[in-house]
UniProtKB/TrEMBL annotation:
<comment type="similarity">
    <text>Belongs to the acyl-CoA dehydrogenase family.</text>
</comment>
<protein>
    <recommendedName>
        <fullName>Cytochrome b5 heme-binding domain-containing protein</fullName>
    </recommendedName>
</protein>
<dbReference type="Pfam" id="PF02770">
    <property type="entry name" value="Acyl-CoA_dh_M"/>
</dbReference>
<dbReference type="GO" id="GO:0033539">
    <property type="term" value="P:fatty acid beta-oxidation using acyl-CoA dehydrogenase"/>
</dbReference>
<dbReference type="GO" id="GO:0005737">
    <property type="term" value="C:cytoplasm"/>
</dbReference>
<dbReference type="InterPro" id="IPR001199">
    <property type="entry name" value="Cyt_B5-like_heme/steroid-bd"/>
</dbReference>
<dbReference type="InterPro" id="IPR037069">
    <property type="entry name" value="AcylCoA_DH/ox_N_sf"/>
</dbReference>
<dbReference type="InterPro" id="IPR009100">
    <property type="entry name" value="AcylCoA_DH/oxidase_NM_dom_sf"/>
</dbReference>
<dbReference type="InterPro" id="IPR006091">
    <property type="entry name" value="Acyl-CoA_Oxase/DH_mid-dom"/>
</dbReference>
<keyword id="KW-0285">Flavoprotein</keyword>
<dbReference type="GO" id="GO:0003995">
    <property type="term" value="F:acyl-CoA dehydrogenase activity"/>
</dbReference>
<dbReference type="InterPro" id="IPR009075">
    <property type="entry name" value="AcylCo_DH/oxidase_C"/>
</dbReference>
<dbReference type="InterPro" id="IPR036400">
    <property type="entry name" value="Cyt_B5-like_heme/steroid_sf"/>
</dbReference>
<dbReference type="Pfam" id="PF00173">
    <property type="entry name" value="Cyt-b5"/>
</dbReference>
<keyword id="KW-0560">Oxidoreductase</keyword>
<dbReference type="GO" id="GO:0050660">
    <property type="term" value="F:flavin adenine dinucleotide binding"/>
</dbReference>
<dbReference type="Pfam" id="PF00441">
    <property type="entry name" value="Acyl-CoA_dh_1"/>
</dbReference>
Amino acid sequence: MSKQFTVEEVAAHNKQGDLWIVVDSKVYDLSKFAAMHPGGLAVLLDEEVAGKDATEAFFSLHRHEVLQKPQFKRLVIGTIAGAKQTIFAREPGALSNVPYAEPTWLSAGYHNPYYKDHHRKFQAAFRKFVEEVIVPDAQAREEDGKKPSQYVFDEMAKLNIIAMRMGPGPHLKGLELMGGIVKPEEFDYFHELIMGQETVRVLARGYIDGLGGGTYIGLPPIMNFGQPALRQKIAQEVFAGKKFCSLAITEAFAGSDVAGLRCTAKRVENGSQNGWILTGTKKWITNATFADYFTVGARTEQGGLVVLLVERQEGIDTKPIKTSYSPAAGTGYITFDNVFVPYENTLGKENKGLQVILSNFNHERWGMVTASVGSQRLIVEECLKWVNQRKVFGKPLHNQAVIRAKIAAMISRVESAQAWLENLTYQMNNMNYAEQAEYLAGSIALLKQYATSTAQLTAADAVQIFGGRGITKTGMGRFIEHYHRTVPFDAVLGGAEDVLGDLGVRQAIRKMPKNVRL
Ligand code: HEM
């Protein structure tokens, strides 16, 4: 049992060199630390703080995790006799009890039609994995800008997480998923949705893309259109966490208008050399700096498009691009200088590359929505906690009607996006790929536009609620600052918002019956 002190005993230690304070029933000896305190010595010597219970002052200025750091835990010398700890951090893997911090299917008292028992078990195990294995590496790599550590990929591979990240399908056959919690034949788009929403809990946007953003979009064309032997070899290497893919479509010359690509692929057929010569550049390619395989869109001599699987080799140069998120994503500029690509590395048919590129767009955009809505929800939780603990004019911040109005809008946005997302996910579970393309392409595009545009409104509101802290990289508002800075990525990747909104409406117009009038 830790040493017990009375309030009076603590009160006697209230000066420089002999300074104790109480935070949530624990007594901290700050005598030596006070001079190094990042908030300064003076604030600790304040007569309301020195030798007193400073719980409220502490939590209005620091995140809870400050107290959990080993160097600060060591400052605890005992507890106040008869007092009990009242503030607890969420255990790794546990659900949050903050209202709206979890989707309704994970909220006490709610019912839902979509998720089964194996989804719940999967969610609990996956969150624990994210918080225990990924979060520590994510925060460190986001800081130093290096790619996610190899041990994280290794741990993911052991549970077949990289394979599951590619969604349901025959590639999961025979694999033990998440230690056997879910059977390959049970694995559906709701499991994948859970993965998308749990992974963003690391709140390190660049790192998340580093963790498999390139593979998520670069591997499907290989799996769906590659030669059997080749796709099996590559899928195995990638699922084992040993190799990485990236999708190299976008260029400085062409973004959403893939028809305008300038990278060229010329056929060469002279005896042993039967293949393509690839020349050109690609820009903003996620994971490019460390990818082993590039799924490249290029223009043929006939003016059509071809998609090629290109292995890293001489003639390929990748250099990092500085974006507003961290270099952990490995975002790069690629130069292909007369690179030879064997003919068997052609994905799909020559001059029919557009179909290959477009074929994965729905799944890719839907996946981006899962992540976008998941991180939007974390921001709602951050804001609810902050307005509850922050005091202004002697009252909690939520006492201001304007603040409550902002929170109301945030909750409505995230709940509507989640409900729409779950509905479309249910449709995906009950449609084959062709049906998804036929019925869902427009809705998914509209949902992505909705999710990312509401995310940006929520990011802006969150900054207003956090004030200066919302634009500061450390301290109470650090996740708000990060989110506000990186939220445009979601709105640009997979198609800019306006393009997607337009696509959704064009699809609807295409399906307008000829025989209807007002
Ligand atoms: C166990 C006791 C304490 C520890 C370990 C501690 C530690 C820290 C740390 C690590 C920071 C910088 C990180 C961050 O921005 O969150 C900080 C900042 C600060 N601390 Fe403390 N602190 C303690 C108690 C207090 C108390 C009782 C006050 C009372 C007024 C206080 C006032 C501040 C202020 C004003 C800042 C600067 C906040 C800002 O820049 O927004 N600290 N403290």
